[in-house]
Amino acid sequence: MSIQVISIQNSNDKTFHVSQVEEIFFQTAKKQSFENSLERKSFQDRWLSPYLDQSASNLYIAIDSQNNITGYLTACFDTALFLKRGDPPKSLLLFEDLVEEYPCHFHINCSPSFQRQGVGRQLVGHLISEVQSCGIGGVFIVTSPEEENVNFYRKLEFKREINRTLEGAQILFMGRKVQ
Questions:
Q1: Contact between 139 and 128 (Cβ < 8 Å)
Q2: Staple 175 to which of 4, 52, 102, 105, CB 3.0 to 4.6 Å?
Q3: What b/e string do you get for 61-89 counting C-beta neighbours within 10 Å, with b at 16 or more?
Q4: In this structure, are residues 23 and 80 in contact, taking their beta carbons and an 8 Å threshold?
Q5: Which CATH number characterizes residue 121's domain?
Q6: Helix (H) or strand (E) holding 70
Q7: Which domain holds residue 119?
Q8: Is residue 76 scored above 60 in pLDDT?
Q9: pLDDT by residue (tens digit) across 94-139?
Q10: 3 state SS of 125
């Protein structure tokens, strides 16, 4: 399988690729049912749209030889600034004290038919290279300690782990220094 990781800015069909990002977003979201299209749009506006709107230059897509997206990673290189805009997720605010040391946070999703085939590893590797070239000292994700993605990030050298509680739920910060 030949996969290429590019910035969405370099896409030869940006509209098509953004629609595929949205499709993968909904395929992989924990929430799968919505009362109506307005609730679905609200969910997208909360969890995906801020990254498309504010960080479009930091949206990386993994495309196959047929020009289809197999996964995407959207990164915010300046989380401190992101937290000052609008209504950031509470899970990010919970770790605001760590954003100086780990300025970049990201979200990653792979199409279910391409999971466990190295696409996520390629996307994170691409991000690490980009972050290094910008002189940014660290990256992080926020997840749940029970999620199966925790081992994936551990294998990718996300060594700093901090658990905190938000509204009765455990939230896990996983950070990786970038040199």
A1: yes
A2: 102
A3: bbbeeeeebbbbbbbbbbbeebbeeeeee
A4: no
A5: 3.40.630.30
A6: strand 69-76
A7: 4-177
A8: yes
A9: 999 999 999 999 999 899 888 888 999 999 999 999 999 999 999 9
A10: helix
